[in-house]
Specification:
Elements (H helix, E strand, L loop, with lengths): L9 E4 L4 H12 L3 E6 L5 H12 L4 E6 L9 H4 L4 E4 L11 H21 L6 E5 L9 H6 L20 H18 L5 E7 L1 E3 L11 H10 L11 E6 H13 L5 E5 L2 E4 H12 L12 H11 L5 H7 L9 H7 L6 H14 L7
Parallel strand pairs: 1-2, 1-4, 2-3, 4-5, 5-6, 6-9, 7-8
Antiparallel strand pairs: 8-10
Length: 355
């Protein structure tokens, strides 16, 4: 049982990120002082929304310059904190050198933050943003799992440097986190493992998340001929922030938490958006046949290799989210609300334009 004192500051790495921004806002709303560790504390475009969030609360925000790959960079920001959130990690699938762009930042970054926590006597709990990608690579892995669904006991064994290196990086990073946590007894570790995170960004113009790209694909015409029934999990960014908050402040929180609200696929996501946006945007109305994807997929998108299509298209994805509901009392937003709110932000910001 770990009791966190809300009068002490709380550190958040990558504080201006997509999920982290909502978490910072949640902490500030609670009247907490946030030590926000960011790459560049002078970049108003990237941190202005956090200052704005703080202005309307009783909380306080202090910015610290810290880089994931610089050893000891988080030392100053962590001082006096009982609770540390490590959310900073690259989320991109378009990379030239996966070792350098994904594996190293994920693994070394995690080691850097957690080793600093070992040297900071005030720290009692570390919450790491992991991913369902540390549990599975392809939808077929959930079909092959015991009882046909993913649980917190499962680790990803199918990703590699050559196949789905993003998933591989998340697996190595989380394993590194548990290895460091097991090497000491001063603080406990909790991990949040979200599936695909969607929902409105607090700073949409500067959000580099893959999530924005997926909404652009759905609404921008890439899938107007049809969408693949590619099995995946989906969760609202605001629910993921709440999951982090509760993982930090629920004394009995422990281990990993699958943070996924809905088992879905791209076609279903498009279909849900149709009633509200179908007239102005070229949303998908029918499934894209698997044989067609096998033919053209590898030509149109590096990710869509034949192996990837075989293992994900027309394959259902299922995860068991009962642990987070039971232990942290999380209830999830309806998928329609998440999708419509995500889509609307892109329209408001003119990232998507009606045809």
């Amino acid at each position: 049982m770990t009791q966190i004192d809300k009068s002490k500051p709380v550190m958040v790495t990558g504080a201006n990120g997509y999920v982290a921004s909502w978490l910072v806002k949640r902490l500030l709303d609670e009247g907490i002082t946030v030590h926000a560790a960011v790459r560049n504390p002078n970049n108003e475009e990237k941190i202005g929304h956090l200052k704005e969030a703080a202005a309307n609360t009783t909380g306080e925000i202090k910015f610290f310059k810290a880089d994931l790959l610089t050893e000891g960079a988080y030392k100053e920001a962590m001082e006096g904190c009982e609770l540390v959130y490590h959310t900073a990690s690259p989320f991109t699938t378009e990379v030239k050198d996966p070792q350098k762009e994904l594996i190293e930042p994920a693994e070394k970054g995690t080691a850097n933050v957690l080793n600093t926590a070992k040297e900071t006597p005030s720290v009692k709990r570390v919450v790491v943003t992991s991913s369902c990608a540390a549990i599975y690579t392809d939808a077929i892995d959930s079909v092959n799992a015991p009882n046909g669904q993913l649980t917190e006991d499962i680790w990803n064994t199918t990703a590699s440097l050559d196949y789905q290196p993003y998933s591989y990086s998340k697996t190595l990073a989380e394993k590194k986190a548990w290895e460091i946590a097991d090497s000491q007894s001063q603080w406990d570790l909790v991990t949040i493992n979200p599936s695909l995170v969607l929902g409105p960004a607090l700073n949409p113009k500067n959000t580099t998340s893959e999530s924005v790209n997926i909404m652009k694909m759905l609404g921008g015409g890439d899938m107007k001929m049809g969408a693949p029934k590619m099995g995946l999990g989906l969760v609202d960014v605001r629910d993921v922030a709440e999951a982090h908050f509760k993982a930090g402040f629920t004394p009995s929180a422990k281990g990993r938490y699958i943070t996924s609200a809905h088992n879905t696929n791209f076609l279903e996501m498009g279909t849900i958006l149709l009633p509200k946006y179908g007239k102005q945007f070229p949303l998908p109305k029918k499934p894209l046949p698997k044989w067609l994807l096998m033919l053209v997929g590898p030509l149109t998108n590096k990710l869509f290799t034949r192996q990837f299509i075989r293992n994900n298209v027309n394959i259902p994805w299922k995860a068991d989210n009962s642990k987070i509901k039971d232990e942290l009392g999380i209830s999830f937003k309806p998928m329609k609300e998440t999708l419509e709110d995500s889509f609307q932000v892109l329209i408001d910001e003119k990232i998507l334009k009606a045809s």
